[in-house]
Write a structure and sequence with these properties.
The protein is α/β, with parallel strands linked by helices and 362 residues long. It is built from 16 helices and nine strands. The protein folds into two domains: 77 residues, Orthogonal Bundle (Arc Repressor Mutant, subunit A); 233 residues, Vaccinia Virus protein VP39 (Rossmann fold). Helix 3 packs across helix 8 and helix 11 crosses helix 13. It comes from Cyanomargarita calcarea GSE-NOS-MK-12-04C.
Length: 362
Amino acid sequence: MKELMPLIQKQEQEQGKSIFSQYQKLNIPLATCDDRLLWETWMSMFHFPTLTVADELGLFSFLDKRPNTASDIAKSFSLGDRATEAILGVMTSLGYLVQQDGKFNLTEASRNFLLPESPYYWGGMLKLMANNPLSHSTLLEALKNDKSSVYKEQDVWETHEVEPEKAKLFTSAMQSMTMPGAAGAAKHGDFTDVKRLLDVGGGSAAVSVALAKRYPNMHCTILDLPVVCSIAEEYISQAELSHQIDTYEGNFFTQPFPNGYDAILFSNIFHDWTWEKCLHLAKQSFEALPKGGRIYLHEVLLSDTKDTPLVATSYSMCMVWWTQGKQFTAGELTKLLLGVGFEDVSVTPTHSYYSLIYAVKP
């Protein structure tokens, strides 16, 4: 083989010169950079499905018991060597696994968010996305029609009202991806002196549960559709907080907000709707709150130029696919709240990509 290397290298050099001369003859300029970005974007399409498959297989729970070699993993899951190498390679290069002395171990991210027994398990979101995979055609349809293409011609929220199983799957997904941020909002947000909080569109009650645990004297009410309220009551009961959190069935666009609350929270709600509908919700809140009452918005924020961070811009694309809304900038939400009469707007980072926008009714 060593004797062949010089010949192979010579052939490669000659071939390279030949290709270069062909480009020169055709007057085609060489690229001014490599195509690394295209490769990374193309290969990213395999990242999330690989994660959902690894979760469904039970890979993370398996490795939580003890680190294992690729060979042991292949045998345990009846996978071929090629498949095992691929799934372990992707999960390790993404940061969900780490290899030490030939054995694969969980990273902290996997221990926190990918073990079913963890309170922060992202399993609900993984299952929702596995059941509703994104495709080129559905995204194109959503962009061209400027409306969600997840449930075809059906509105997402109307579908959940008449199909409880879809509502349950969706609420489970929201629970799993909201829990970490909910804990961050409760820890870093200023909810001092809030006695009664109305959690509009509170879903699984994740944020209310986190707040109730941190503020034992706070009472929270989940305002949501009947089908969602029944699901929320299960989560509230599991958290043993039925004495501190209750539900209120209603449509927050067609019915006025109930009175008697000194704070109103919207977590992951404004990004579901158009500017006009968000303005309506802000006005409704202003009217329902007493003097000194507070409004809280918990959202993943875009930069002022709306082109970073990548998670927020991608989340906006997800909203195009799923809802009527988009992610907002801190400036946009500040303008909206000031426009309906709120004052003293502040923005506090809470967890990961989330921030809490807070304002007061004068």
